[in-house]
Amino acid sequence: MASKSEVLGSRTTRLTDLTAAIAALPRWSVVLLAAVAVRALTFGNPVVHVDEEFYFVTAQQMLHGAVPFVDVWDRKPVGLFLIYLLPAAFGVPAGIWIYQAMALAAVVGTALLIARLAEKAGWGRGALTVALLYLFMINFADGQGGQAPVFYNLLMAWAFLLVVPKPSDESGDRRRIHRGTLAMLIVGVAMQIKYSVVFEAMFLGLWLMWREVKLGTSVAHVIRRGCLWAAAVWLPTLAVWAVFIVLGHGEPWFYANFGSIVDRLSDPPMVLLRAFLKIALILGLLLIVSGLSRHVPVKDPSEHPVRALFFGWLIAAVIGLLVFGSWFNHYALPVLVPASLCCAGYLGGTEFGRKWLTPVMLLASGLGGEYTAWSAKWHRGNAEQLDALADGIGHGSGCMYVYSGNAILYSYTGRCTVTPWIFPSHLSRERENGALGVDQLEEINRIFTQRPEIVVMRPTYYGERMESHRLAVQRMEEMGYRLRGRWPLGDLYISVYELPAARKAPPRFAASKPS
C-alpha cells in the first residue's frame, strides 16, 4: 500500500504535469477554452439581460423597415443595433446563439489584445493571467452575454495597441501619425456602439498631442494633427447624423442620441448608493492591484511611457464611469479592460503576486463570476420558461404591448408593436419621465386607443412610475381586458392580458416574426 508521501508526491507530479501541459498550449487556445467554460451557462438563453433582448428586437424591426429613433426608439447609437442585424436575420432561437457566439469571439479577441498590451509594457509574465482575469471578471459585471462594452472593448484595446509608444518614434514619422489617426477612427466607431467611450476618446486624443510635444513637434503641427485626430474620432458620428438628416430624421436622431441623455432624471439616492457599492465591489481589488503595479520597476526606460499610457487610460475609464452615474453592473465593463491590464505588473512582476495573489484572484473571479451568471439566470429565467410564456401569449396576428417585462417576447411571438417605445421601462420607469421626446402617460393612452390584443405586465418594481402603472391598469379595466394567465420567468410571474374578441383591433402586419 502506498504511503502518504508517495500519494502526495504523485498528486503533485500530476498537478505539475497539468500546469506544464497548459503552459505549452498556444495562448489563444487557453483563452478560448476558458471563455467557453465560463460563458457556456448562458449559451442559447434569450433572457440573459433585458438590454440584449431589446438590441435583438430592434435589429429585427430594422430588417422589416423600421427606422431607429423614429419607428423604434432608444438613446443608444445605431452601431450597436447594426451589430445585431446578422443574428436578427436568423430569427429565434438561432439568432440568440449567433449573437452570443459573436460576443464570445469579441471577449476572446479582447483578452488576447490585453495580453499583448501587457507584453508591450514589460509585464509579459502576467500577460496570460490578466487575459484570463478579464474573461472571468466580466461575468461579475453582467458581461456574460452581448452587452455593448463586450463588443466595443475589443475596438478600444485595438486602438490603444496601435499607439503604444516606441523608442524609435520620431515626430515626422508619417506611419506613426497614420496609426494615431486610425486609432482615433476606431475609437469613433466604438462611440457609435456606446457614447460612454467619449472620456477614453478624449484622453487618447490629448495623450497623442502630448506625445507630439514630447517628440519635439512644433506647436503648429501639434494643433494640426490634433484637429486631424479630433475629426477622425467624430467622423463616424457625423456620418450617421448626415444619413439621418438626408432621411429627414436629423432632429429625432439628435434628441435621442444627445438631448435625451441630458433630460433623463437621476435614480433615488439610495438606489445610486447601492449601485455604486456594487460597482466598487466589482472593481475594488482590480484597482488596488493596478495601483500596486505602479511600483513594479521597469527593465527598460522605454517601458515608462507605455505604462503611463495604460494608467492614464484606466483613470479616464474610471472618470467616465463616475460621471455617467446610474452605475448598473455592466457600466463597469469598460473599466475592466485597463484595470485587468494594469494588474499584470504586480501579478507577474512580484513573487507574492505570482505565487499567491494570482491563483487567489483567478479562482475567486472564476468561481464568483460563474455564480453571478448562474444567479442571474435563476432570477431572469431561461429558454424553456420563455417558450412557455410565448406559447401562452400565442402567435396570432393581433398586436401586443409589453408594458413591463421582456422585449424579446416580440420576437418569440411574432406579434406587431403599437409604439416606438418598445423597451418596456421607457414608458414605465420614473427616471425616464420627460426624457423620451414624448409624455409617458400620453403615449400609454395612445397605445390603448390602438386596442392591442395582448398586454404583458410583470409585478411592480422599484423605480417604476406608479402613475404609468395605474393608468395602464385603468385602461385595461375600462376596455375589458381579461387575464389569460400567469407564467413563471425566473423568480417572477408574468401576467398576460387579452382583449375580448369583440373589441379587438383589425390585424396588422407583424414587424418581427419567429423563424
TrEMBL record:
Q: How does it sit in the membrane?
A: Multi-pass membrane protein
Keyword DNA-binding on entry: no
Q: Cross-referenced InterPro entries, in alphabetical order? A: LipidA_mod_glycosyltrf_83
Q: Which domain of life is it from?
A: Bacteria
GO biological process terms, semicolon-separated: lipopolysaccharide biosynthetic process
Any one Gene Ontology molecular-function term assigned to this protein's record: pentosyltransferase activity
Its annotated compartments are: Cell membrane
Q: So where does this one cross the membrane?
A: 20-41, 82-115, 122-141, 147-164, 185-208, 228-250, 271-292, 304-324
Identify the GO cellular component terms for this protein.
plasma membrane
Kindly state which keywords UniProt assigns to this record, in alphabetical order: Cell membrane, Glycosyltransferase, Membrane, Transferase, Transmembrane, Transmembrane helix
Question: Any idea what this protein is called?
Answer: Glycosyltransferase RgtA/B/C/D-like domain-containing protein
Name the species this protein comes from: Sphingomonas kyeonggiensis
Source organism lineage? Bacteria, Pseudomonadati, Pseudomonadota, Alphaproteobacteria, Sphingomonadales
